[in-house]
Amino acid sequence: MKKIVSLILIVSLLVVLGFSTYSCKPKEEKPTWTPKEEYKLSVVVGPTFWWGLGAQKFADDVKEKTDGKVNIKVYYGGQLFAGKQTNEFQLMASGAIDFAWGSTINWSPVIKEMNVFSLPFFINTFENLDKMEYGETGKIIFKKMEEKGVVGLAWAENGFRELTNSKREIRRPEDLKGLKIRVVGSPIFLDIFRQLGADPTNMNWADAVTAFQQGTVDGQENPVGVLIPVKIWQYHKYATFWNYLVDPVIVGVNKKIWDEFPDDIKKAIKEAAEEAAEYEKALCRAGLDGDKSINILKEKFGVTPEVADPVKYLEDNGMKVTFLTDEEREAFIEATKPVFDEWVDKIGKEVVEAAKRDMGK
């Protein structure tokens, strides 16, 4: 009996000693984060466009806010996706691209919900756009992006897309009949212009310029932030400001890369994205929303825009700028209703209804 008791005591002592030894072992630390030498950022446009300026500010701000730990190089003009804009999102999701300032138009083939911004004559104002981006609509889209491997950091902008042409003033749907219009290659754009009686065609900008010069293409649609840098008045006399749809830009990052960043680095990058996006949005809207964006640029960023009144600037360069009346806008809404209804089903009613709630429609 004594032997059994002694054995129990010895085993108990060994267990206690073993437990003590185990519990005193230091906890294994997580591996130290090592940043890449360079993080690649894709942008479709060149460095002189508002969109390009915003991307560069983001890269500069990230470097400053992370004390040089995260170095982002901006690759302009679509260098990273070999000319096919719609490949950008997939390349970022796969990790071939780390960051991008990308258009919802170019990413919509992957995230169909992004087509909500391209529904004809649906949003129309900056106020409505902001309500959608920072409301339920924006949350749905960022969630869909993350499911595909990309984290959305901030909403930037390319702007409402306006119409220009070399033939005539456009005030009614009938005015577009027979005009050959260069459009983005997204199917909804082709559907809208066909419904309006135009002949839409998709081509890259260099080919479009040649076609404008030769008179084989009559017009095109783009935001002011593109019209001015490309000097659209060299090819077209007429501009219609109709805000028929809008082109938001999203600051995105590969999810795997994002998840590897420590919390303090994530915070710095997120802040840089939001500040650069606010700056870039103000550049896009300067002179189009009264003094609001001009004041943001001056007071927050210490910048005075070179073109404080884009409409007057286009007129000073010989263009006739037309704004639609409410009645004229209604005619376009009615004319494009079949396209609107068809695309609601393609996009998904959930996100369209969320957009209506955000806008209070």
What does this structure look like?
Helices cover about 45% and strands about 15% of the residues. The chain is built from 16 helices and eleven strands. Strand 6, helix 7 (about 185-195) and strand 7 (about 200) form a beta-alpha-beta unit. It has helices at about 1-25, 50-65, 90-95, 105, 125-135, 135-145, 185-195, 205-215, 225, 255-260, 265-285, 290-300, 310-315, 325-335, 335-345, 350-360; strands at about 40-45, 70-75, 100-105, 150-160, 160-165, 180-185, 200, 220, 240, 245-255, 320-325. The strands form two sheets. The chain has a six-stranded mixed sheet, with helices on both faces. A five-stranded mixed sheet has the order 2-1-3-10-4, with helices on both faces. The protein is α/β, with parallel strands linked by helices. The relative contact order is 0.15.
